[in-house]
Amino acid sequence: MSAPAIQVRGVCKDFLLPHLRRNTIKSHFINIFRRRRIMEVQHALRDVDFDIAAGEFFGVVGRNGSGKSTLLKILAGIYTPTAGNVTVKGRLVPFLELGVGFNAELTGRENIYLNGAMMGFSKAEVDEIYDDIVAFAELEESIDQKLKNYSSGMQVRIAFSLATRARGDVLLVDEVLAVGDAAFQRKCFEYFRSLKNSNTTVVFVTHNMAAVREFCDRAVLIEGSRLIAEGPAGDIAEQYTRLLTPTAHDSGGVDAARDTENRWGVGDVRYTSVRTPELVNDQSEVVFELEAVAERVVDEPVYGFLVSNSSGAPILGTNSAVKKQRCARLAEGERVRLLWTVPNVFSDGRHVVDLSIHDTSGFTTYDYWKHAASFTVVKDEKTPYLVTPDTSFSCSRLDD
Q: What is residue 397's DSSP assignment?
């Protein structure tokens, strides 16, 4: 590893949260005008240590509230650590809260020049890169409108486009890929891919484990305000995925009777239970075990399912009609047991299962159960894509 671009030593960060002390009903009346405050100490970070090499793409992952964004703000100099110290070599550019400092009463053009000046660009330098900024943001037709007339997505595009022109040795990125539409996110990915070929140091905070595996060289996992793991990006992504593994009550035996918010349909046939494996490793198949009951007579119900990843992107699904399997007529009160066996092509991460029952025409939905169950996949062979089917490869030397 080359000389560190960032050194973090024993960093702690505490916040003081004021509360009113009211122990009794009487004190609520006595202390109306004389309020006694107590201070609660919140430990946002505790004893964090790591080094980041120059030119390294470094991931920071952890659950919400673990302290990731606090760490990034300390690296950016926005927060001062309560204890410990941080050393950053080179010019630092933060991609933290895009658009902070924009003036809603100014046009997009005026905001580019204003924020360019705040970032250290001269007017001549902004003139030189102005067309590229606007083209990247795809706002040629609306650049002279006031910013208050922009959608939030348009404002983010122009802020990101401007930020990418900043000259820096170290970039701090906090969930930039989670904003904007799909086309803008693709541009973000392309930009970060280009950074892999430069000597820029990048600190990348995200919940997207596919992005961690694709971009990051190493990563750290923060949990409960402490750094609990550091190592290759793939290993840390796997530990994070295991951390999110649902407990038995999340997926195993779902109480169908109580889950009324996530389902709809006329109710002639309804699912009564669903069981999925909680954790899927390298098993060749994933089995969904379901039960349903008919509330009245139903001819040839069609049973289906859909599996999506944690971001909501559909991965695969089918139904009994597509499989050309005619299901028997159900009498009132009759119960059935259903099994779906699906090849384990899923990539790492948490997946959710939607279930459906409808008639043969497809016009009448008997029961649609959104997020009926979930399961988590952890694989040794990893790719940043939605599925990881079995593949084979051979390489042989050709005779001259």
A: P
